[in-house]
Predict the 3D structure of the following.
Amino acid sequence: MAIPGVGPVVAAGWLVAALTGAAAVGTAGGIIGALTQAGVSPDDADVYAENIRRGGALVSVRVNENDRARVQALMDKSSVNPSDRGAMYRKDGWQRFDPAAPTLNADQVRRERELYRS
């Protein structure tokens, strides 16, 4: 799916259903609206949307309660803390997700990813 201001997004599952309808009303209302409706705080939703704009990915999983701890442990191994990432973005002057901001090109995405390799 391509989201204006964010670019191509590969997604599947429940979030796609939320985004498909929401993308028609604009990116900010789309991805941020879908995330906040799913229970993500508006501040974290802004960081996730910016992360996608910068070439990152968002993985969201719905699982039954019996599998929750196991799946959470797996996802925590490689997850990004939105508060930490938002703080890194803010060091460079970023404040909130801007749906009008251009999508990064391949070289810019490569440089962005190098900033966060550990």
